[in-house]
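// run 5 | inverse folding | seed 20
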């Protein structure tokens, strides 16, 4: 029986932290999820100004939106106007991003601005208010939802299980990730945490971020993780089989070397070699049929290894 109460992904306190207009950061390779803590290294002047404005404004909130990969046609059309390439355009940005709060910032030794951020909420991009001297966007907080059902719970448990299996199959993966996962209070936060940690591509992560329906979001993660875990298990089997073959060859070589050393110690090596050579010559001169000759040579080889 379905429970039709909807779970909301966003608490009121976090929602109230996000102003209607916020400084904008644009990313081409990083997708930040709500409740995700990460570091950014900024060297673009507009990005640094955006962070400074947020911090000095008191709310310390900026919005991060992904930039779509430009098509060949757009690149050719804009190649003459350098200013057009550098300016952000609404249609070039993904429509769902993340509002983040600046926790700490400092200059790194290489001159870049090192910023520690904490994801607050999914936000929709409504308009670009300005693009210089820093980008400013009008945003709207988005709320995730889902119906609480046994199917949803089973799906969430399966995703968590796949993630734990993937961590177990990954050499040197920090086990602290599993501890952090177990401390999260609900399936929504666990889904976002797994999506942020799992090896999804930029566009795949962006699709997960944009999906507000928790069930569909979990299905997307489950599909990607099932495929990846299967590949990891196959890779591990191939490596194990290869290691087994190498071990067998090394063991055989070692035993042969031991046998040779014993024969040398007993003074048997030279006499036995002469005896084997005489037998081989007799086989060649006996005029045996080919099949019989092959059997005789095989037995002789076996005797040499004894």
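// decoded
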């Amino acid at each position: 029986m379905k429970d039709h109460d909807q779970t909301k992904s966003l608490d009121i306190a976090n929602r109230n932290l996000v102003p209607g207009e916020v400084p904008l950061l644009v990313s081409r390779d990083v997708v930040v999820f709500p409740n995700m803590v990460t570091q950014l290294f900024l060297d673009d002047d507009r990005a640094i100004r955006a962070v400074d404005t947020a911090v000095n404004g008191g709310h310390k909130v900026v919005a991060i939106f992904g930039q779509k990969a430009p098509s060949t046609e757009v690149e050719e059309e804009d190649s003459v106007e350098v200013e057009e390439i550098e300016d952000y355009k609404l249609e070039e940005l993904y429509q769902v991003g993340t509002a983040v709060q600046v926790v700490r910032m400092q200059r790194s030794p290489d001159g870049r601005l090192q910023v520690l951020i904490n994801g607050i909420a999914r936000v929709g991009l409504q308009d670009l208010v300005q693009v210089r001297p820093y980008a400013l966007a009008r945003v709207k907080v988005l709320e995730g939802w889902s119906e609480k059902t046994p199917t949803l719970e089973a799906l969430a448990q399966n995703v968590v299980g796949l993630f734990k299996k993937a961590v177990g199959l990954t050499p040197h993966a920090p086990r602290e990730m599993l501890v952090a996962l177990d401390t999260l209070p609900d399936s929504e936060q666990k889904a976002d945490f797994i999506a942020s940690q799992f090896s999804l591509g930029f566009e795949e992560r962006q699709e997960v971020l944009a999906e507000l329906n928790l069930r569909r979001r979990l299905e997307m993660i489950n599909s990607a993780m099932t495929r990846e875990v299967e590949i990891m298990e196959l890779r591990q089997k191939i490596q194990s089989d290869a290691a087994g073959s190498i071990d067998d060859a090394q063991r055989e070589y070692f035993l042969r070397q031991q046998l040779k050393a014993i024969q040398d110690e007993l003074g048997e090596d030279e006499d036995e070699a002469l005896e084997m050579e005489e037998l081989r010559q007799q086989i060649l001169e006996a005029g045996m049929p080919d099949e019989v000759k092959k059997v005789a040579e095989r037995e002789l080889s076996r005797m040499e290894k004894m």
